[in-house]
Structure formats: structure tokens, C-alpha cells
């Protein structure tokens, strides 16, 4: 009898441990004292055998977590860690730029003033997410959409207190390829297959990759508009290449010669933000030095223990693991998904840092125009502290477009302005 009771107790203990999706962190190396906000980290197993172990960070809203929106943040790449977003983009905490041997964190509270946020390392191979089987590492756009949907269902089943919160998909860069189809997948799943239902309300995308051929085609007009190439070269490119700069196979020899001149004018630019120097990230005077420090911090064994990372699950942590291969880029354009999401009535905020040359804002404006919805609030400046922070326009499909003046490819270049924009939009206010 005593042995039976002991076995039952062990079984209950195992089940209760399995039910826990993560751990609440009380402290982090580099931060003095207890964390002044609630941070949970953990893994959710995805797939038939849960071989895909998806690592996440969850930060609870400081305002009203029971009612505030719930966001999932997808960092781009594909292959970039969401830890980058926490420290530099949404800034729940911030890494001070100091010596690699002495890295400090300070507390900021931008987006978590208004929202609960799940930061997900995806696909497997990004950040601390890993596969228990080496044969399951083949990933694709459409596959990731289904994996993230399954992750969300399992996460919400273990956090049922957030089931009724308004839910939004958010992210930047390559998330533009994953976010819109994920919104559609969640919406259809709510009606067809999947419990619990997810209270999906819309999506937020920054400098989103939508159709790479389209975006490549707008880099030359953008370069001309930003005074990176001469009027004469631009006019010749337009005439000789017939406005088709992105399709390599259709270029004539003369067109290729002119594009080579364009490349010589722009090849030394830091295309994520054209005003910043393109320099070695190990230089303390460089903006990118923060990436070097982040790598040092995330690869520290004390940090990994604090974050509850499974020992031996990954080798070196990298901000962006572009070796997530083979990756099947099987969604060529997400414009059809934006159309379907508009028909379904979902809200959307699309924003662009206007000094990003990776996804030029004029390319984003072009596909938004292609949706062919009428303008309900025409082009105008939006303000922060009586200063122009960017420009905005709203459409009849509940889509708001905004530029971030002086912004780059990700929110880290203008975090305060990006937060104010988000705060107003998520609250239903005009920018």
C-alpha cells in the first residue's frame, strides 16, 4: 500500500511538472536586484513526438494583464532570436553598452506598459529553440505557420487566463512572410479544427518583407529619392532597364552595366539604416557593438542557467542563425494573405523606418496601394512631443500605414517613437 501511494505521488509530481510550460525568473545576470516585471521562460514541444522544442520568453503587461492585448512577437531572419527584440526593440529591459566583461541591464518598459508579449525563438535553430531529432530540421514558410499555430494552442492551454484577451501577431522584417498567413491560419483554425479558439484581432508588422522581387525592384527608386545616385544614372536605369530592376533574368547587358554603377554607389552602405556607418560590430564606437555584447551575454553559462535553457541543447547562441538550412521559401508573396485578412475584417498596423534600404518604405506603400482600398485618413504627419515622428495614412480595410522618421529596418533605431505609435494604435486612437 505504501509503495502504491509513493508511485501515485511520483506520478502526480511528474504530471504537475509536465503541465508547467515555463518558469518565472526572479533575476538575471547583469541586473541589480529582483526583476521589476514578470518574466517567464520555457519550452513548448511541437510535433507528434514534441521533438521541436520551441523556446519562448513571456513578459506580462504592467497595466492590466487580465484585459490587455496578448501579442506574439516573431523576429525576422529567418533565424533571428527574439531575445534581440526584448533587449533592443520592444525594450522590456535594455543592455547597456559597456565592456564585454562587465555587461549591465537596465529596466525600461515600453511595449509591456500596454500588452502581454510572447517572444518566440523560431524557426528551430533560432535562439534557444532546438530539435531533439536532427532529421526534423527541414523548415519552410508554410511549415512555420503551422508550427507557430500549434505552439500558440499549447501555450494558451497552459495559460488559460489569457484565452479571452485580444490577440495580435506582431513582428518585423522576415516576419512579413510569416505573420499574415499565420493570422489566416489562426482564423480558419478557430472555425474548423482547433481548440481552444484564439481571440485573433489583427497584426502589426514593421518593415515587412512581403514580396522580395517587388522590394528589390524599389531599391533603385529609393536610392534616387535619398540622393544616393545621380538623376542621370536613375533616368538611364529607368530607360534601359524599363523600370525592371529586380528580375535578373530579364536584364540586358546594358542594363547590367548600369546596375553595376548603381552597386558601386551603394555597396558600402549599412542598408538596415543608411545614415549609420557600416562597421565592425566589435568596435565599441559602432552602433552594432550592442550585437557583440548581446552574443557575449547570451553565451554566458550563468545567463543560460538563469533563463532555464536546457543544458547541451544548442552550441553557440547567435543573434541571427542564418544557417537554418535547408529552408524552403515557399511563400513568394504575402499580398494574397493581406487581402484575405482584410476581407475577414482584421485590423493591421504596417510601419516602415524611412531610412531602411532592405525593405524600402516605397515598396511597402506600393503593395498596400495594390490592395485597392479607399483612403479614410489621408497622408499627414503624426507627432510625438510636438515634433514630427513620421507620416501616416489609413485605409478602409482597417489598415494603418506609418513611417518612422529617421527609423531603420527594425524598431531599435527609434524605440520611443515606435512605442508611442503602437500605444495609440492598440488603444484604437488615431496616430
Look at the helices and sheets and give the structural class.
alpha/beta
Q: What characteristic shape results from the CA principal axes?
A: globular
pLDDT averaged residue by residue: 87
Report the oligomer: single chain
Which CATH-level-2 architecture? Answer: 3-Layer(aba) Sandwich
Head-to-tail CA distance between termini: 68 Å
Number of domains: 1
State the share of residues found in helices, binned by percent.
25-40%
Give the helix tally. 13
**Secondary structure: number of strands:** 16
Order of helices and strands: HEEEEHEEEEEHEHEHHHHHHEHEHEEEH
- Proportion of strand residues: 15-25%
Top keywords for this entry?
single chain, 20% strand, 431 residues, twelve-stranded mixed β-sheet, two-stranded antiparallel sheet, alpha/beta, Rossmann fold
Give your account of this protein's structure:
- The protein has helices at residues 2-19, 83-89, 141-158, 175-192, 212-217, 219-225, 231-241, 253-266, 289-298, 301-306, 335-343, 361-370, 415-426, and strands at 23-25, 39-46, 52-59, 70-74, 93-95, 105-107, 116-120, 130-131, 139-140, 167-172, 200-206, 327-328, 347-353, 375-384, 387-395, 399-404.
- The chain is α/β, with parallel strands linked by helices and 431 residues long.
- It has a single domain (22-213, 289-426), classed as Rossmann fold (3-Layer(aba) Sandwich), CATH 3.40.50.
- Helix 3 packs across helix 4 (175-192).
- It starts with a helix and ends in a 5-residue tail after the last helix.
Amino acid at each position: 500500500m505504501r509503495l502504491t501511494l509513493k508511485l501515485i505521488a511520483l506520478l502526480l509530481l511528474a504530471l504537475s511538472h509536465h503541465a508547467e510550460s515555463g518558469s518565472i525568473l526572479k533575476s538575471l545576470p547583469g541586473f541589480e536586484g529582483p526583476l521589476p516585471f514578470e518574466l517567464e521562460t520555457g519550452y513548448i514541444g511541437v510535433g507528434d513526438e514534441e521533438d521541436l522544442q520551441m523556446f519562448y520568453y513571456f513578459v506580462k503587461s504592467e497595466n492590466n494583464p487580465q484585459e490587455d492585448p496578448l501579442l506574439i512577437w516573431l523576429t525576422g531572419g529567418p533565424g533571428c532570436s527574439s531575445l534581440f527584440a526584448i533587449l533592443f526593440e520592444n525594450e522590456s529591459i535594455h543592455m547597456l553598452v559597456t565592456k564585454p566583461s562587465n555587461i549591465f541591464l537596465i529596466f525600461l518598459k515600453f511595449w509591456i506598459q500596454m500588452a502581454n508579449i510572447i517572444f518566440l525563438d523560431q524557426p528551430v535553430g533560432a535562439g534557444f529553440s532546438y530539435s531533439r531529432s536532427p532529421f526534423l530540421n527541414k523548415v519552410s514558410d508554410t511549415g512555420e505557420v503551422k508550427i507557430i499555430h500549434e505552439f500558440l494552442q499549447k501555450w494558451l492551454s497552459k495559460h488559460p487566463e489569457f484565452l479571452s484577451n485580444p490577440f495580435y501577431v506582431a513582428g518585423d522584417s522576415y516576419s512579413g512572410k510569416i505573420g499574415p498567413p499565420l493570422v489566416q491560419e489562426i482564423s480558419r483554425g478557430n472555425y474548423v479544427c482547433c481548440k481552444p479558439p484564439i481571440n485573433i484581432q489583427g497584426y502589426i508588422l514593421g518593415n515587412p518583407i512581403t514580396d522580395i522581387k517587388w522590394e528589390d525592384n524599389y531599391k533603385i527608386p529609393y536610392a534616387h529619392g535619398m540622393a544616393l545616385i545621380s538623376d542621370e544614372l536613375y533616368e538611364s536605369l529607368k530607360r534601359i532597364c524599363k523600370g525592371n530592376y529586380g528580375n535578373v533574368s530579364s536584364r540586358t547587358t546594358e542594363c547590367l552595366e548600369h546596375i553595376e554603377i548603381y552597386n558601386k554607389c551603394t555597396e558600402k552602405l549599412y542598408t538596415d539604416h543608411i545614415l549609420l556607418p557600416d562597421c565592425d560590430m566589435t568596435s565599441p564606437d559602432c552602433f552594432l557593438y550592442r550585437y557583440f555584447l548581446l552574443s557575449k551575454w547570451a553565451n554566458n553559462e550563468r545567463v543560460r542557467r538563469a533563463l532555464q535553457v536546457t543544458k547541451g541543447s544548442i552550441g553557440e547562441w547567435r543573434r541571427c542563425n542564418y544557417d537554418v538550412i535547408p529552408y524552403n521559401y515557399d511563400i513568394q508573396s504575402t499580398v494574397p494573405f493581406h487581402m484575405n485578412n482584410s476581407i475577414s475584417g482584421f485590423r493591421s498596423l504596417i510601419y516602415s523606418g524611412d531610412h531602411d534600404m532592405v525593405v524600402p518604405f516605397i515598396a511597402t506603400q506600393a503593395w498596400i496601394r495594390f490592395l485597392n482600398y479607399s483612403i479614410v485618413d489621408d497622408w499627414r504627419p503624426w507627432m510625438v512631443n510636438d515634433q514630427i515622428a513620421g507620416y501616416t495614412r489609413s485605409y478602409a480595410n482597417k489598415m494603418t500605414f506609418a513611417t518612422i522618421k529617421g527609423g531603420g529596418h527594425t524598431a531599435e533605431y527609434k524605440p520611443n517613437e515606435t512605442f508611442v505609435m503602437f500605444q495609440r494604435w492598440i488603444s484604437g486612437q488615431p496616430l
